[in-house]
């Protein structure tokens, strides 16, 4: 009863999260939401599939929207059988509007938009506009942003200028979940005009976990992982091929990830069948605990994976996921490699068994340097947002320029 009473008297924060390709955005957002429950009633609008093995934080109220995602990073697809994209979009807009009216939030926190999620603007912009018109007073509108943005789009300048305009038009603050000593927003965001919306660096957001009571003995195996796994098949195949180059004796534990397509999971099981010393797992509850038990790690370099490697202090070789328009992981890997925290290998070279085998030999002799990064981003974000709700409303001067600007 006391907990319910306390919850009902906290200001409400409505958190919109759309994870489209992997689980990185969802994992970071859940870690952030867990910390926010100390100061807010948190209502979480979940826009993608909720994968197995990823628990919803205690105290967070979840509203599942009809799940949408991206099949290749560009095309919106429905993740619910029998529900087409148009039907899902209409129902999502209804549920988002209903959630806003029923919760009357003091804060609306939107993950990534307007710096990404352009194809979801049709539901996000109505949410922002309606939040500004709430009868009890306008909600604070805040963007939750990862450390490094993609900056290799063919229309990158137009994208950045549009994002800057939307941020200045609608948002009261941008929370960058990074240590500014490691990277700053302007390193990967280059609008023609400077961003006027206040930017707050929170430090990196990592899930809360019990402190290790004692050192865990590392096993002999190489832990191979690829986040949610949706684009991990190539890395898993490369790891098995490189192992053959090394004589087939290096123990492997491969964590496929909950989003590895079922057909690829079945094919991976067939490739590994009969290989002594190769263990396959679909997913694990705590990746840091797994990393602390491994001799070394081979993985991609998404936000959460990179931080797991830093926290676990495991010798790590990363193969950043990259395409002609996706370079975020490559930039993160380069910065961490420059700190001596890990080794990196381009995806094109990792596809060559002999080259990956040589890199793995180097890895088995590698000792990472501790990376002195601020990892208290979840708690600091909660503190920033709590302070923001106590300030008297102030008109963003850019709101008056709407009639003079175009998208």
Describe this structure in words.
By secondary structure, this protein is of the alpha/beta class. It folds into two domains: 2-205 and 376-404, 3-Layer(aba) Sandwich (Rossmann fold); 222-363, 3-Layer(aba) Sandwich (Rossmann fold). The chain has 13 helices and 15 strands. The strands form three sheets. The chain has a seven-stranded parallel beta sheet with strand order 3-2-1-6-7-8-9, sandwiched between helices. Strands 12-11-10-13-14-15 form a six-stranded parallel beta sheet, sandwiched between helices. Helix 2 crosses helix 13, helix 3 (85-103) runs parallel beside helix 4 and helix 6 crosses helix 12 (353-363). The longest helix is centred in the first third of the chain and has 19 residues, at 85-103. 44% of the residues are buried.
CATH architecture of the largest domain: 3-Layer(aba) Sandwich
**Quick one: CATH superfamily of the largest domain?**
Glycogen Phosphorylase B
How many beta-strand elements? Answer: 15
Question: Main sheet: which strands, in order across?
Answer: 3-2-1-6-7-8-9
Indicate the proportion of strand residues. Answer: 15-25%
Number of domains: 2
